[in-house]
Each structure stands twice: as C-alpha cells, then as structure tokens.
Here is the input.
Amino acid sequence: MRSRRSFARVRSAIFARHSNPWSAWSRWATAPLLLVPVWTRSWPHAAVVGAWFAVNPVIFPEPADQRAWATKAVLGEELWLLEHRRDAGLAVDAAASGALMIALLGAWRRRPVPAVVATGAQMLLLLVYWELMARYYETHRDAETGE
Here is the structure.
C-alpha cells in the first residue's frame, strides 16, 4: 500500500511538471525525432532521442496556473488514465499509436512518403486526443480536487 502511494506521488509530480506548456509542446513538436534512430539504425541516435523523451516531462517547472490548453490536456490525461476509460480518447490514442507504427515502419524501410504522412497523421491525432483530454479535465477536475 505504501509503495502504491509513493508511485502515485511520483506520477502526480511528473504529470504536474509535464503539464507545463513548454514540456507538452516541445515533446509534441519533436515527435518526428522518433524516426531518426530507426531510419539511421543508430544506437547513439536512439540514446539521444530516448534521453530527450525521458527528461522532457521533468525538466520544466510546474506551470504557474492551469489555464493553458496543453496544461489542461496533460492533466486531463492523468485523470483519464486513472479511470482506465474506454471511450473516444482510447480510440484516438490507439489510432495515433497505429499511425506511429506505420511511420516507424516507413522509416525502417526508408520510405520517406509513408514515414512523413504517418508522422503527420500521428501528430494530428495527438492534437485531437489532447482536445479530448482537455475537455475531460474541464469536466472532471472539480471531482479530483474535491471542490
């Protein structure tokens, strides 16, 4: 039970920092970097990209407020994940993951058109997912904070 509470505190701290718009938007904007190590078949590239995606959620401070759309999207995702919802958010997230897999396959085969088109689709679907998560946050944040 104690480790569960510790994990919850760590998770909450990571989401709080990742909800900084600089963190959310920089991670979104650098999504195409995921293709680089696959395309180049380079472990050093994989290490650099992996390091970026590992540190991005924690290198920015918590935002001063929760008014930004990206902040609401990230905090909404945290609430949504806790409830293990099976809804449109899950379908959009699955579609974005599928697009990423197609992009990675395109990169592996060194086919720029499928890689670029699928990456664009994945990034667009992620924005749709964020919109769903921001709406989820708007409707569920009061229950979470006890207001």
